[in-house]
Give the backbone structure.
Amino acid sequence: MNVTVLTAPRSAGHYFTRVLAKKYDIPDLREYLHGLKTDEYLPLIHNMPIGVHKIYLNSLDPTSLNFILANSDKVYYLIRKDKDAQVRSFLCSKYRHAVNPLLLNDEDDTGDVVDIKVTKSEVDSYREKFLLSDELIKSYADRYPGEIKYTEDIVKDDYQPYSQKYNFTII
C-alpha cells in the first residue's frame, strides 16, 4: 500500500506520517524523495515502495507529483490552519539551525532559550507562501481523491510541543 501525504513545512507532517504508518502497518518513509535531483527521483516515483510518503509541493516537478497522487492507494492533504504558529515554527527552525548547525533535529533541546529575531516583512512573506501552498494543496485535492486533514485536528488528542524554548521577536 502506498499512502501519500501532501503538505507544507511545519504542519505536523512527520507526526502524521508516523500515525498513518502505524494505522496501515506500513513503513514511514518520511521525505525520502526530498533533496533529490529530477533524474534521481524519476525512477523512484515509477516504482514507489510500500509505505507512507510525505511530499512538499516544491520538492517535485508537477508532472511527477500528479503521477504520484494518481497512483497512490490513499492520499491525505495536510493543512495547518494557524498560520501564525506555522510561520513562527518555520522561522524558529530555520534560524535555530543557522545559529547551531549541529542541531539537526527539532527534538534536540539546547538547554537554553534560543533568541530568534526576524523582520515583519519576512514573517509576511512566509505567511503568503504558506497561504499559497494551502491553495495549491486544495487544488490537488480537487483533482485527486483523498482526505483533507488539518493539523489542529490530528494533534488535538496527542499534542506534544517541543521542549525547546524561544524568544521570538518580530522587529
